[in-house]
Amino acid sequence: MNSPRHAINGLIANLAEQGYIASDQIATTLHLARELERPILIEGPPGVGKTELANAASAMLKLPLFRLQCYEGLDESKALYDWKYSKQLLYVQVLKEQLGDILGGAESLASAVERLHNFDDIFYSERFLEPRPLLKALQSDAGAVLLIDEIDKADYEFESLLLEILADFKVTLPEIGTLGARHKPLVILTSNNTRDLSDALKRRCLHLYIPFPEAALESRIVQSRVPEVPDQLREQLVAFVHGVRELDLKKQPAISETIDWARSLLLLHANTLDRQLVEDSLNVLLKYEEDIGIVAPELTALLKSATRA
Amino acid sequence: MEATLLRFIRHLRHHGLEVSPAESLDAMRVAASLGYSDRSLLHAGLACSLAKSEEERIAFDQCFNRFFTLGERSEIVDETVASEEGDSPSSSPDDTDIPPMPGDSAEGEGSGGGGGSGLSMDALRAEVMQAANEVGLEKMEYPTQRGVYRRRILDALGDGEQRQAIAGLADGSPDDQQQAQWLSRLREARIEAVTEVIDRQLLLNNNAKGRSYQEELMRDSSIAAMDSYYRKRLPPLIRKLAKKLASRHRQRLHRAKRGKPDLGKTLRRNLAYGGVPFHRYFRNTRREKSEIYLLCDLSGSVSQWSEVLMLFVQALADVLPNARCFVFCGKSIEVSDIFRQYPEEEALAIIQRQHGMGGSDYGLALTSFRDQIADRLNRRSTVIVLGDGRGNGGNTGIDALRDIYHRARLVLWFNPESRNRWNTGDSEIRRYQTACHYVAECGSLRKLERLLDDLLNLIR
To answer: B228: exposed, middle or buried (C-beta count within 10 Å: 0-12, 13-18, 19+)?
Structure first.
């Protein structure tokens, strides 16, 4: 029985083996991305495991991961390909020495030019091509997972550059021509939504929004990441973090902060949450002084509801 | 099932999701791959191919639930008649509004005219859905068409004939009377079902046509003249307009400007020619981003306009990153922080509460505005003042504005009053004209949009 539901449940189990607890939506999108050969565009608040999904997928599929971190000013020579200039330089020197042999015996200028044209020129050829992450992912033999991280940080031109790759898994190099993918990679783009991405890009991708997880899911994530944490403490700290997210904070604590916090509580040999402990370790959870100022007066109420749960 | 999916996509479009044909094709492939049997799976799958942002996702979830809950029962019927939905009667709505004469329902076979014994509610609904498809209910656009379509559907179901039959039976034997009673109950149930179907269709269509017409109207009318019902709808409209503007102007910032020659790149790229520079490469010079200072009058007469302009500028944050907002009744106060902290509508309410109310004092306002920004003003700064220039006969502050005029690259005055009222009464706009590069009238949303479009052309 190979129903889609079956396949997706299998995917969830496989991802769990890699330490990634996926929701139904995440698994369905991943399944569809492989079925339809579409890139996935992941959006969501920082620290909910957008990049982690790519890592887990690459480990699960046993495919190499090519990661491209985007930033302002990223261009094709850093993302797509470049030429091996030093090798090309050597090639030119070799060529110069051979020039005499090639052109030797040519009677007229016209015939010399004719010979030069017949000479096989490999100056611009794949041999001198230095592949960057995008091209590497396309040229990978067994397929690959290509992670284009924080695409919203890149310029608009770069977005346009990506369109060809995302739609057809092809790149066009002006000097050589169009190179296709040997094996279509699984492409995952992440965005922190610092700006709107162009519609053209969104249209070519499956869109996945990962929100902060529900308490039960987050508890499972902590369990899978930090298995040493006792059950009671885990439930309490997850409930506490959920309480904190209700407040108006500059930066809401994400899953990665919850995990960090769980680890640090473990180091402090805590078995349950108490006020002193939370006060001392709050800076692991909250990254801004103002946020700590907001949470501190609410501590008693938050702790009460967290320990009751 | 494809027809149902297409109808669902149309439904999404009515609710503001912009689904392109390419995405529809994707959705088809998704549905084909996942199948229709598992509802939650289909939901997740369609969501990732059709909803492309967080807001769209919320709208999508609502639409999905509404569509596939209300529509589930009639799905199979829709399938069978989906092909006929093109040929709806194109008669004018008026002649069907009159109840038909009892004799003229010739085409109705009267499937429910007595023979349909033991008709279940589901079968009834299916019948109604089929009739609704025959008369082209999907084309209904305004709530006011409700009556027309109810009549049309009932006609298609042979309602006139039934009424006649009921009337005929009501005067007969007790048996006949009983049957008449049963029939009229059936008829009532049918009418109820028809109403339900029509209401659902209205909900699905979400009055899309009516709203787009309304938006057109709102863009042309004066904001001061709008009542609160329409004013509440302004922010989404403004954001929509701003998004369009932003996408039009986004590219331009990156237009490369030729700078100094790039020696390294030129050398590398010309290696092929033995270092002879056939191709020359230049460094790009980064264009300095311009700054915008916005000074908005918050006094009663123009405060709505100020809110609209501030909303607009906030929504353009993508292409106008360095905009600073000031408001005044008396002294000018910077409010950029409030916009940073709160969502836009809330921020406007706070600003209005804290700084609003009162007559405008242009003298104090412009002088304090100059004092705050003077040291930042340079040839990249653009200053926009929004106000009607009616200082209630007080100090005009023209000297302060002239100072700004000499330092800044561009000083614009947006006046929401129509041009023929300028310079009447206590309006000092003529004097301000001498200290501005341009005084523009921004009487409607469309004019304001055009002004900002021009502004973006100029400064980017």
So the answer is: exposed
CA distances from B400 to A281, B364, B376 (A): 53, 10, 15
CATH number (3.40.50.720, 3.40.50.410, 2.40.110.10, 3.40.50.1260) of B291-459 reads: 3.40.50.410
Q: Which of A24, A25, A28, A195 to mutate to test the interface with B (most CBs of B within 10 A)?
A: A28
Closest CA–CA distance from residue B51 to any residue of chain A (Å): 7
**A214-218, B64-68, B197-201, B208-212: the lowest-pLDDT one:** B208-212
The complex's ipTM? 0.82
Lowest-confidence segment of A291-295, B52-56, B69-73, B80-84 by average pLDDT: B80-84
Q: Which of A9, A32, A38 to mutate to test the interface with B (most CBs of B within 10 A)?
A: A32
**Would the CB atoms of A199 and B18 count as touching at under 8 Å?**
yes
**pLDDT averaged over chain A?**
87
- How far off is chain B from A267, nearest CA to CA, in Å? 36
**What is the tens place of the pLDDT at every residue in B245-272?**
887 777 655 555 567 788 888 888 888 7
CATH topology of domain A4-79+132-205: Rossmann fold (3.40.50)
Strand spans (E) along B286-375: 291-297, 323-328, 332-334
Statement: residue A64 has pLDDT above 90: yes
Query: B370, B389, B390: which is closest to B326 by C-alpha?
Result: B370
A92 vs B35, B48, B272: nearest CB: B272
Cβ contact A168:A208 at 8 Å: no
- Provide the residue ranges of all domains of chain B, joining segments of one domain with +: 2-70, 82-103+110-206, 256-287, 291-459
Residue A42, C-beta contacts closer than 8 angstroms, at least 6 positions apart: A50, A53, A188, A189, A190, A191, A208, A209, A210
Please write the tens of the pLDDT for every residue from A160-196: 888 888 888 988 888 888 888 888 999 999 998 777 7
